[in-house]
Amino acid sequence: IWEMARWAPTAANSQPMRVQFVRTDEGRRRLLEHLDEGNREKTASAPVTAILAGDSEFHEHLPRLLPIRPQIREIFADNDALRERTGNFNAALQAGYFILAIRAAGLAAGRWPASTPAGMDTEFFSGTTWRSILVVNIGHPGENPWFERLPRLDPAETVRWA
């Protein structure tokens, strides 16, 4: 999954999203307390759950990731608003790529935000610059899903051509 998702584009090749996979009983126990009650059973039964996070210090890797712009690290280091906006947007973009990679692998992806993101960050990312953005359960589609696929807006409602 990560091998597919990691190649998708981000601004300045910034790649701010990080992944914490949770699959042990102990890891799952730590995770469940930070989810809404309605999502706990699904997560407890998932083969693996990914906590997707954004790294607020993503710019530290830019000299290696964008060597054609050696000054780019300092541009982000000196501009908190730009760094936060770029990091948040591109981590969310990568989360979408990650979900598409899961589905491209023939797996199901159930996703939602943490109900207590600060608690989840303390639990899993203490002492790091990672901050959770999304939780994704990963597994094989079941014969009896939690509910049928929900409708999508019609292209006539969402797409325009000029």
Topology, element by element:
Blueprint: H1 2-5, E1 17-22, H2 25-32, H3 37-45, E2 48-55, H4 62-65, H5 72-77, H6 80-104, E3 108-112, H7 117-125, E4 130-139, H8 155-158
Antiparallel strand pairs: 1-2, 2-4, 3-4
Q: Could you characterize what this model shows?
A:
The chain is an alpha+beta fold and 162 residues long. It has a single domain, classed as NADH Oxidase, CATH 3.40.109.10. It contains 8 helices and 4 strands. It is globular, with a radius of gyration of 18 Å.
- N-C termini distance: 36 Å
Overall geometry comes to globular
Number of helices: 8
CATH architecture: 3-Layer(aba) Sandwich
Evaluate the radius of gyration.
18 Å
Biggest sheet descriptor: 4 strands, antiparallel
CATH topology: NADH Oxidase
This entry's quaternary arrangement is single chain
Number of E-state strands: 4
H and E string: HEHHEHHHEHEH
Into how many domains do the coordinates divide?
Answer: 1
Mean pLDDT: 95
The unreliable regions are none
Strand content: 15-25%
What's the CATH class label?
Answer: Alpha Beta
| Category by helix and strand content | alpha+beta
Strand ordering within the main sheet: 1-2-4-3
CATH superfamily: NADH Oxidase
Helix proportion range: 40-55%
Compact summary:
It contains eight helices and four strands; from the N terminus they run αβααβαααβαβα. It has helices at 2-5, 25-32, 37-45, 62-65, 72-77, 80-104, 117-125, 155-158; strands spanning 17-22, 48-55, 108-112, 130-139.
Please give a handful of descriptors for the protein shown.
alpha+beta; single chain; 162 residues; 43% helix; globular
